[in-house]
């Protein structure tokens, strides 16, 4: 039988045992495990959600590891449901092709490429291959004309790909390197794929943003690691690869776009971000202890605001049903007493109920006829776009509550 989860004791980056507990969010449902109505009375799987800091390599991570089969074989997150995200990846694909693809015969492989939106945009310029373990999502990727292997990436699969398709000129992995527990194996697989000639480019949420302008709600079981460049460099160099460029990109709060290869000249950007991380003390446990204190304050403030609004008879709904929203709702205990419903553009989520708190998810059109007084913006990472898109609602007097990192009403 599939074991649902296990507790690891060693650091997933350096293998050391110098790990300290930083933040305990309690036992929690899986952030993308939306429920059908008929399952609401069944016992839901809940797993510890605790974040640890490694004093040897400075990485932030979970030690309670949920089986990826449970997390990702059927997935409710569709990249193309968030227009700004789809646009971001389409542009990234074009930039990578301009920079690194020389001929239509070059191979670009994406690990965890979701519905294939990045690769579909460059499939006329190179050979493309998506490795997407979620069968329901792989199907959509295939329909968009992108050859897709519905499996998890590992060294064995990398070897098979090299045998069947040859080496890759570019390997991309966006929002994946935080999700993979066995990072060493993943990087070794990538090394095999790119050989000495290709590049590996990945985006991952930056821990500097998580503890700064971002929110603790980015913490959930899918995210095993909360990466800094400092910790990643330690890992990557230990495997005989080099980070040769990096930039911060304004997506999911703020992410790092990291460029890795075997023998390219290292750009100044790498030293600059490492220096910035040092200044921010991302290599110190105290920094994360402070962050954990802010999380409790944030909880108190948001709960008290919502309580006051409800006392005054206000109707509140949620905007978006993102994974991060489910961390927020479950940690704060916000359910249907507070929120009437969540609206979300993802067809897979509509008609279902949020994990743990069981708030119904409906399509965004509901807001045309059923207008609340306040909307809790769970998809806060798209604040600017959503506030612009919902100008009419705001003109009618509807207020948006931004929950993290500071509670704000706009
Ligand atoms: O790593 C991960 C990150 C990067 O993406 C994952 N493991 C899963 C996912 O996290 P998330 O679900 O928190 O991501 P988003 O992109 O913040 O989700 C936004 C949600 O809001 C989607 O379900 C779509 C929805 N949405 C909406 O209803 N109206 C989004 C926009 C922009 C909108 O206008
Ligand atoms: Zn470590």
Q: Can you walk me through this structure?
A:
The protein has 410 residues and is of the alpha/beta class. It has a domain at 79-286: Rossmann fold (3-Layer(aba) Sandwich), CATH 3.40.50.150. It is 34% helix and 22% strand. It is built from 14 helices and 19 strands. The strands form 4 sheets. A 7-stranded mixed β-sheet has the order 8-7-6-9-10-13-12. A 6-stranded mixed β-sheet has the order 16-15-14-17-18-19, with no helix packed on it. Strands 2-3-4-11 form a 4-stranded antiparallel β-sheet. Helix 5 (155-165) packs parallel to helix 6. The chain is globular, with a radius of gyration of 21 Å. The termini are far apart. It binds ligand DWN and zinc ion. Zinc ion binds at residues 11, 13-14, 16, 54, 56-57, 59.
CATH class of the domain at 79-286: Alpha Beta
Uncertain parts: none
Helix content: 25-40%
CATH fold call of the domain at 79-286: Rossmann fold
Largest beta sheet, briefly? Answer: 7 strands, mixed
Which word captures the global form? globular
What spatial order of strands do you see in the largest sheet? 8-7-6-9-10-13-12
**What is the CA-based Rg, rounded?**
21 Å
Bound molecules: ligand DWN, zinc ion
Give the CATH H-level superfamily of the domain at 79-286. Vaccinia Virus protein VP39
Structural class: alpha/beta
